[in-house]
Design brief:
The chain has about 290 residues and is an alpha/beta fold. It folds into two domains: about 20-185, SPOUT methyltransferase, trefoil knot domain (Alpha/beta knot); about 205-280, no CATH class. It is built from eleven helices and seven strands. The protein has helices spanning about 30-40, 60-75, 80-85, 90-95, 115-130, 145-150, 170-185, 205-220, 230-240, 245-260, 265-285; strands at about 20-25, 45-50, 85, 100-105, 115, 135-140, 155. The chain has a seven-stranded parallel beta sheet with strand order 3-2-1-6-4-7-5. Helix 1 packs parallel to helix 2, helix 1 runs parallel beside helix 7 (about 170-185) and helix 5 (about 115-130) packs across helix 7 (about 170-185).
Length: about 290
Amino acid sequence: MKGSSGTDSTARNIVGGPCVILVRPQLAVNIGMCARAMANFGLSDLRIVNPREGFAGDTGQRARSIRKGVFASAAGAVHLIEQAKVFDTVEEAIGDLNFVWATTARERGQGKRVELPVKAMAESAAGIAAGGQHGVMFGPERTGLENDEVALADAIITFPVNPAYASLNLAQAVLLIGYEYLRASQGDVMPYSKEERSPPAPREMVISFFEYFEDQLERNGFFKPESKKANMMRNLRNMFHRMEMTEQDVRTLRGAFVRMIDGPREAGRKERLADEMREKAQRTAEE
């Protein structure tokens, strides 16, 4: 079933990708929004390291309030929250992975390779397709990953942002990683395109329209002065060519111009009948 917000339960659901590892997240709303960003781009393995109290296991009022905030902000991605794995340490969270990225806005002096998301996720897409398990670590909202946590990663991902304001919201960072991974793994394919309701107009149809239109303009004295007529006609034709008109476009435009020139349909019919009668009378008189 397709919802007004763009969700469609009947569409193919993309899953997999690198696991998202949230290290010591502090805000319930950010955990939920990260899950939502993951669902947008087909990431399905959420791992949480040492979250603030109340996310899992606790049953107190505060814990229930935090979980409620997480689910509310997930907006349709609650299944990722429910399936999330919770760990006490980063080492436990990444133990089964073959390759780990650490996200950070600061150079940590650890001599690790640093990549932008577009290259990093292309690498992960290839590695996962070959059977590997990749993950991306994200640090807590206020401080980011600690140096010892970055040291556990194979390489670093950093984002091309304003150097004067380089701190990203946690969910925004997850969304950017998800976007680049989906592009790398699925290709730059548009989810939908403009529906063509009519085929492109053939050239003879377009030329016939031009001739009719220009003839009417000529009758009404549009092409003045005469020395500029050729250039004016070219300009008009080029205006219509830029529209890349369909057959329906040409029919609609021609019909609109006919009505403007001939007036209401009934009046135009009477005028044509009168013209035909005059022509018939003239032929009779000549005979």
